[in-house]
Structures are given as structure tokens and as C-alpha cells.
Design goal:
The complex is a heterodimer of chains A (about 300) and B (about 300). With about 300 residues, chain A is mainly alpha-helical. Chain A is built from 14 helices and no strands. Chain A has 2 domains: about 1-50, no CATH class; about 55-305, MetI-like fold (Orthogonal Bundle). Chain A has helices spanning about 1-10, 20-50, 50-60, 65-95, 100-115, 115-130, 135-140, 150-160, 165-175, 180-185, 190-220, 220-230, 240-245, 250-290. Classes of the chains: A mainly alpha (about 300), B mainly alpha (about 300).
Amino acid sequence: MSAAVGRSGRRGVRQGEAPWVRRLLIGLALTFMFLFLVLPLLAVFTEALRLGWGAYFEAVSDPYAMAAIRLTLLVAAITVPLSLVFGVAAAWAVAKFEFWGKSFLTTLIDLPFSVSPVVAGLIYVLVFGAQGWFGPWLDERGIQIIFAVPGIVLATLFITFPFIARELIPLMQAQGTEEEQAALVLGASGLQTFWRVTLPNIKWGLIYGVILTNARAMGEFGAVSVVSGHIRGQTNTMPLHVEVLYNEFQSVAAFAVASLLALLALVTLVIKSVSEWRMEREMKALDALAPERPGAASSGTSPSWAGRPV
Amino acid sequence: MTAASTLVLDGAAAPGKPKPGAPEAQAKRRAVKRVLPGFHLALGYTVFYLSLIVLIPLAALILKTFEMSWAEFWEAATTPRALAAYRLSFGAALLAALFNLVFGLLLAWVLVRYTFPGKKIVDALVDLPFALPTAVAGIALAAILAGNGWIGQFFEPLGIQLAFNPTGVVIALIFVGLPFVVRTVQPVLQDAERELEEAAQCLGATRWQIFWRVIMPTIIPALMTGFAMAFARGVGEFGSVIFIAGNIPMVSEIVPLLIIGRLEAFDYQGAVALGSVMLLFSFVMLLAINALQGWQRSRAGGGL
């Protein structure tokens, strides 16, 4: 056995581990993946369909479920564009310019990642809640933010805050400013430069950032749970509705609504992979086109999200 | 003034400036760097939006904490129930992050070094915990691990309960933290110079020695970064945990749930005290992760 291992090792220096070690490691990794990722995903769909398609569609088309779906779509429709504008502005400022306090600003942009979702909800209660800073003032004017839709939107904005900026900053930094400068020298206006030069370059990173932001906006639970007040048909988003159904032992209905969110996650992963592959291809094409470009597409800066978990 | 003239001016004026410290010279130098338009607008909006959504609300938590006296704060933050919750949240997150340290490295290794059918799908699936809403993950894990679930049924006869106790919390946090180590180690492993390994092998090192002496030093900053991220995320996690924890006070109640409990009981001081402890932890972890990433960058830069 050891002789065989030694020989195969000598034959090809690039071989690395012995075949049985390799197979063992692959087997272990795949078992781990299967137990922790595939099984939960399968469980969502089998539980949702346990009583057949009839019960499934009944659960999904229940008026409260429909209200939750509508609210979730509304929240995403408000938060994603706002996060998009912020993400592009922040990435433009951080990636294309040098200024004092830049790394501090980048750290602050990352801050919402490390704050617990429940704390994210709590801080809005402290600002807008009945006991909060603006609570009495808002109350006098009959404006409700906490336990209402605006609170849900704010909490979701906090949670989705860094995604697009974090996606774009490394990408735009790697691309440098030469192309934009060239466009400006050739007489393009600032907006033209952005639309025709910058945007095509960051297209796939932007798409990925948006789809991820959307997934988080629709799926956020902790922060929204604190500020929503759980009013059925009014302030229950889809994840909150899942919780309500689950706690009422309406398992099939809970998993049916959850399965919609799981489908959203799968679609997110597909779009992510596609945009990642396209990015890699474009980076390689760029590399072949201009090998002297300093740091543009070297291995060190390849797909931005590879080293940046969210 | 067009951008082109700025560039020309820059070339002509920059070297011959008599007083380098003069404000005009500084302004000019800054203007030179900022050939692209939109800097003030972009930075202004960034800072405005950051303040509105993140900084002012966070300041509210900090200021509310300082409204309490030290004794009040200490009492609210260290009740026996709170201490039990800290122990569970930090302990379970640490265990889960350690587990992910090992299996995340294994996954990253397998994904970078080996080829096998379905590799692209496996690679894409690693991000599932980022994309799947935590509440969905929570009920799915609870369904699998419960006494009559797909996995739980094998452990039930042995007297082992996987769900509705601290074990369930650890399992949920493993799920949530799974992608962090994989996604931080993967690119570093990809960029690692195989030549070094080959040289070590030619010099007679065993595979095991190569792993510990050549590969490990390259990836250790990335590993630690991923570990810290998984740990930080695990301590704050809420959605996936509450469905599987059982939420028994003093036994399986996590800190975020305790905060919500305080809020629902209108005990704002209690919520603020616990929330500020969590926030302080977030700040510390953010700084630690930043330092680790700096280490990683310097390591990567030094290797070239």
C-alpha cells in the first residue's frame, strides 16, 4: 500500500494526495454538504407538499398569505432601489477617489453586517417607538412608524445596507479610473461616462448585488420581527407569516409559504452563479486583451465576492 | 473647465509650485486627483444615507445606555437569565464556528484542488445559507432534527435529542456560518503557489508536512477571518435559532430572544442594556475582522 502511494507520488509531482485520501475528503465534504444544506432544502418542499398540491395551493392563496406576499414585495420594491442608489454612490466615492477617512468610511459601511438583526430592530424602536426619541412627536401627529410598514422598511434598509456597496467597491477598485478618464478626455459628460463606461464594466457585480439585496430584503426575519408588531394581514411579511403559521401548528401552510422563499433563494443562487461565470469570462477576455494593465484582472482581484462572504 | 484642461494644468503646474504647504497648492493637488466628476455628490449622499439609516439609530442605543446609571446597567445586563443567555449564545457560536473552521477548510480544499461531477452545483450551493431566509432554515432544520424527523429519528432511540435544546442551537449556527470559512479560504487557496508545494515535495516533505508547513501558513489569516465572521454572525443570529432552540429560559434562550422578551415586557432598560452589550461585541468583532483582513492582505502582498 505504502509502496503504491509512494510510486504514484513520484510519478506525478502535481498529483498531491493519494487517490484514497482524495476520495475520502471528497466523500466527507459531500456528506457534510448533503446533511447541512441539501436535506433542509428538501425538507421544505416535502413538508410543503405532504398533503398534496391542493393543500399547497390553498395555503399559498390564503388571504393572509397573499397579504404577506404583497407586503414582502412592497418592502423589497422600496428598499432595493434605495440600497442600489446608495451602493453605487458609495462605491463611486470609495473606489474612484482618494480622501481622508476612507478606510474608516468603508468600515462603517460594513457595520450592519456585524450587528445582530434584533439589535437592528431595537435601535429603530428606540428612535421611533412610543418610548423613543421621536415617539411622542410622531404620536401627536398620528404618524406610526414602529409596528407599521415604515418601520419594516427602515429595518430592512439597515439589514440590506452594505450588500451592493461591498459588491461594487472591490470590482471598481480593480478596474481603476483610466477608462473613465479616457472617456472624459474624449468629451463625454459625467453621466455619459457613467452609463457607457462604468456601468457596463460593473454590470454583473451590480446584478449580483441587487439580487442578493432582494433576497435579504424579502427574507429578513429578526430585525423585521422586532418592529413589525405581527398584525396579521397588515404588518406580517412572508417570513413572519411563516412563523405565525408554524407556531399555530399549521405545518403544511407554514412550509408552503416557506417554499416560496426557498425558491427565491434557489433563483438567487442561479443568478449569482451565472453572473459569476460571466464576470470571470469577461475578466479573462480583458486579461488577454491588455496583459499590461496593472492589477486589472490578476488572480488577486478576481471575482470580488469570492473572498467576501456576506 | 473640462477634464482635459485639468490634466494639462496638472502636468504644467504641479512641479513648479513654490509653496508646497500653501492652501492653493493643496487644493490643486486634490483637484488633480479628482478628475472624475461626482465626488462631492457621491460622498455627500453616502455620508447622509449612512447617518440616517445606520449611525443615528445606533447612536440612539448608545445614548440610551448612557442615560442609565452604571449600577442600573450592570444589574440589567447581568441578571442570571442574561448570563445564561450569554453563555449559550457565545458558547454555541464558538462551537459552531470551530466546526465550520474544520469543515469549511475541507470544503474549500475539495472545491479548489479536486474535480468531481457536480462540482459547480456544490460550489453554488455553499452560498445557500446567505440566500435562504433564516426563518425558513429554522423550520426546516427543526423538522429534520425533531424526534420524528429524517435525522432525529436515528438519534431518538439512543436518547439523544438534537432539537429544542442547546445542541439544536449549535446545529442551526453551523448552517448559518457554513459559507464564511469556505468563501474566505477558497480564493487564497486558489492563488497559493503550487510551486512551493512541489519544491517541498522534491525536498522530501510528506504530504502532511507540506500541509502544515507550506499550505497552512498561507491560508491561516483567511481561515481566522472566516472563523471570526462565522462566530460574529452566530452570536447575533436569531431567525434560524429560535425555531430549533426550544427557548427555555436559563437553558436554551439566546441573547437576541431575551432582548425581544424584554421589549415585549416594556422593559426598555433591560433591552437597551443587553442590546448595548451585543453592539459592543459587534464593534470588537468588526475591528478584529478588519485587522485579520489587513494581515491577510499583507501576507498576500509579501508573498509576491
